[in-house]
Amino acid sequence: MKKILTILLVTLLLTGCGKSAKMEVENYLKKYKTLDSEVLVDLERVVESKDLNEKQKDKYRDVLKKQYKDLSYEIIKEEYDADISYITVKIEVYDLYKVESDASYYLENHRSEFEDNGTYNASKYMDYKLDKMQNTTDRINYDITFTVTKEDDDYVVMQPTENDLLKIHGIYNYELN
């Protein structure tokens, strides 16, 4: 029994009392799934940066919250090199890029549906697109490699690239690759 406790204690000391690069990436993604306050502040910045009316902003908030809460992930690869780790995660999110692309195509072919007295109504189109985003069930998988550094005894997930953030939001333009 004493030997088992010694092994457990040594293991905890070597892994930083249970902390690891992998766990920090999981914590990072869990902040999205649980709608952590940091994530909600960023979400609000994104929503406020869009040219939307208040009702549309509320709907867009709901779309993003659904995206975050329903995000799923699996760690598929771990690489460790001194004080830098690379944790590759396969995420699954709603394919909002496809929704935007399909909505744009629909607009091109049905423009008159978004006109009032022959004048294009951007708000009407945005309502259409947000409804499609809110109701989509199409999902897509992406691989993201997170860089994690070890600073003192703490692991820190480095800011993901812009493309990786677009993947988390489900709006990454995968047609360019």
Summed up:
With 177 residues, the chain is of the alpha+beta class. It contains seven helices and six strands; from the N terminus they run ααααββαββαββα. The chain is elongated, with a radius of gyration of 21 Å.
Explain how this protein is built.
The protein is of the alpha+beta class and 177 residues long. The chain has a single domain, classed as Nuclear Transport Factor 2, Chain: A (Roll). It has helices spanning 2-14, 21-33, 37-48, 54-69, 96-109, 122-135, 162-169, and strands at 72-81, 84-94, 115-116, 119-120, 139-151, 154-157. It has a 4-stranded antiparallel β-sheet with strand order 1-2-5-6. Strand 5 and strand 6 (154-157) form a beta hairpin. It is elongated. The N and C termini lie far apart (56 Å).
Number of strands: 6
How many individual domains? 1
Given the structure, what is the number of helices?
A: 7
- Helix share, percent: 40-55%
Please outline the major beta sheet: 4 strands, antiparallel
The termini sit apart by 56 Å
Shape: elongated
Low-confidence stretches: 1-16
Element string (H = helix, E = strand): HHHHEEHEEHEEH
Query: Reading side by side through the largest sheet, how are the strands ordered?
Result: 1-2-5-6
